[in-house]
Amino acid sequence: MPAGRRAILRHVPTTTDRRRPRRVYGVGTDPDARFSLANERTFLAWVRTSIALLAAGVALEALELPVHAVLRWCASILLVLLGVLAAAWAWVAWARVERAVRTGAPLPPPVAGAVVSVGVGVAGLLLLVGLLVA
Hints:
The chain is an all-alpha fold. The protein has helices at about 5-10, 20-25, 35-60, 70-105, 110-134. The chain has five helices and no strands.
């Protein structure tokens, strides 16, 4: 092995205590990588959902749509708030699930999906009424 390569290998940490957040990685044992990777994919899906909600909220106000102005504004604010909530919840849910998998505890119930679904439904109703009133 070349000398340069050996030098690189010596600096690789061998302990897992450097991983953050400690409240997740400081408990239990490392699970099968497939579980952690599935949890990460779910986290990234929620981040994509958050970006889509934020973009929809901004687009409602940026585009000249034939929707009553107040109802359009309310729907826009609701979508932006849901986008922020989804981003925050993605992190919280990832940490809760990862900790449960590491400790062998039951998985926590999903909560954000229902909130986001109801919120998007309300935003849709606001836009529908705004279209009918305009």
